[in-house]
Amino acid sequence: MFHQINEIIDINLKLIFQSKNQSLKFSEFKDKNGEKLGKIMELFQLMENENLIKIETNKCILTEFGKDIVENGGWFEHLKKKKEKEKIKTGETKKHKLTKKPKKKSFSFLTNHFKNILKIKNKT
After folding, report:
1. In this structure, are residues 32 and 11 in contact, taking their beta carbons and an 8 Å threshold?
2. CA of residue 35 relative to chain centroid, distance
3. Among 57, 46, 53, which Cα is nearest to 19's?
4. What is the pTM of this model?
5. CB atoms within 10 A of CB 13
6. Largest CA distance in the chain
7. Nearest CA among 15, 1, 5 for reference residue 76
8. CA pair distance 61, 75, nearest whole angstrom
9. Side by side, which strands form the sheet with 53-56?
10. pLDDT given for residue 21 in this prediction
């Protein structure tokens, strides 16, 4: 299901990019077979939420981000790069947690213990 949605997003991003004024009417969106999709507001809203298009009255206008996606390989390439970045970020977070040295509790424990001994000694 997600693959189909991503495929439709990719196809229509390219259609908008190639169209005059880089905008398409809702009725001009197509499926993978080139058939008109009809007015599927959820798709348009999803694309708008991803900042790929801006919805105006009865058409969708390509955003700069959407244009950048098409020029750099399309929606699938964008998703692939996004996944790789998340993987790297997750790996760095795990690496950071593993290499982060734990606070030395023993030293502070010893100094507090030593202070307590001195207090006791000074009282006697």
Report:
1. yes
2. 30
3. 53
4. 0.69
5. 23
6. 95
7. 5
8. 16
9. 23-25, 59-62, 53-56
10. 92
Indicate left, alpha or beta for 88 from its phi (over 0: left) and psi (-120 to 50: alpha).
Answer: alpha
Distance CA 85, CA 79 (A): 10
Question: Whose CA is closest to 7, among 74, 68, 64?
Answer: 74
- What tokens appear for 124 in the block? 């006697």
E-state strands within 26-110: 53-56, 59-62
Which residue has tokens 């969106």?
Answer: 29
Structure tokens at 61: 């206008």
* pLDDT score, position 117: 58
Residue length of the chain:
124
Instruction: Look over the chain and give the mean of its residue pLDDT values, rounded to a whole number.
Output: 83
The one-letter code for the residue type at 68 is D
Q: Provide the token pair at 118.
A: 């001195």
Cα–Cα distance for residue pair 78/6, rounded to 1 Å: 11
Contacts of residue 27, Cβ cutoff 8 Å, sequence gap at least 6: 36, 38, 39
